[in-house]
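Hello K.,

You asked for the raw outputs rather than the summary table, so here they are, unedited. I folded two proteins back to back in the same session to keep the settings identical. This is the first:
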Amino acid sequence: MNIISDNPLKRVTGGQLPAQHFTAVIAAPFGAMGIRTEAGLVYELVYLPPTFHEKDATDALADRAAKQIGRYLEQPDFRFDLPLAPLGTAFQHKVWKAIAAIPRGEVLTYGQVAKLIGSAPRAVGQACGANWFPLVIPCHRVTAAGGIGGFSHHDEADGFHLRVKRWLLEHEGVAGL
C-alpha cells in the first residue's frame, strides 16, 4: 500500500491544477469533478470550481468513472464500482471504511465515527479531508456535532467546498445543515 499524505482536495483551491492533470473533467451542479486514472486504477477524484471546463475521458476507466459519477449526480442511491488505487494510511482506510458504511440520507458526527473505530474526532476529520475518492467514499456524510463541520480541509462558511458538501447532503435527502 502506498502511503501518500498529500491532500489532493486542498491542492485544487482556486482552480490551480490545470485540466491536463485529469484524465476527464465532468460538469456537476456545484462545479465540476476531476478524474485522474493511471494503470487501470482511479487515483483521484476532485471537486472543482465552475471555472473548470469539461474534458473528454482519455481512457476507458476515466470514461467509466465519469459515467458513474454522472449516474450518482442523477440518482443518489447509485453505488460506485471503480478500481481505486491503494492510497492512504492504514488509519485512513479504517476511517474510510466506516464512512463508506454510512447509508445515503444519513450522517454521523466526527465523534460518532471516532467512537466506532476507537479514535479521536480530530483524527477522523483529518482522514476525511485526505480522502482521494470523494463520492465513492462519501466523507460529506460526516459532520460536526453542532452543524455541518468542515469539508476537504476547508471550513469557510460560504466557501466552495462547504457549498459542495451542502449540495451533496441535500441531494441525498439530508436537510437542515
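The second followed immediately with the same parameters:
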Amino acid sequence: MADFDAIYEDEQLEEHYEDQMVAPVPEPIIIRGAGNMTVFGLSNRFNTEFPSGLVSRVAPEEFKATIGRINGILKKTLPVNVKWLFCGCVCCCCTLGCSLWPVICLSKRTQNTLDKLLEWENSHLYHKLGLHWRLHKQQCDSNSMMEYVLRIEFIPKTPIYRPD
C-alpha cells in the first residue's frame, strides 16, 4: 500500500523550471502629487518630471502626454470639488453631515474618470511596453494620512517554453 503522507519530488518539474530564466521585476515607480491643493487625498496635479526608471522603456514625450491628460482631468474636476467641499463644510452643522455627500460623490467620479483614462492608456500603449499604470492609495510618508499616487508597475515577461 502506498504511503499517502509521503512527499515525493517531481524531477520533471524541477528540470522544467531550471531551463527557464526569469528576469527579476524592478520595483514600481511612484509618482506623487505635486499640487498645492488636495481633496480627499487626490492632489490637483502630478509631477511631470520624467522618472529615471523609465529610461529606455517609454519616450519622455509619451510620459508627459499621459501626465498632461491626467493633470487636465484634475484641473477640470478638482476646483468644482473644492467649492462643494467648502459649501458642505459651511452647511455641515445644519445638515448633520449630509451636505458632504456631493463632494464625496464628485471625488469618486474623478477617481473613476482617472481609472478609465489609465485603463485606456494601458491598453493602447503601456501594456505593449511592459508597463501598467494605476491610481493607488497609499499612506503619506510624513503622517498617517492617505494619498493617491500614480503607480507604474512593470509587467514581468513570461518565458516561452520550447521543448527540446
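DSSP finds four helices and five strands in the chain.

Happy to rerun anything if the numbers look odd on your end.

Regards,
P.
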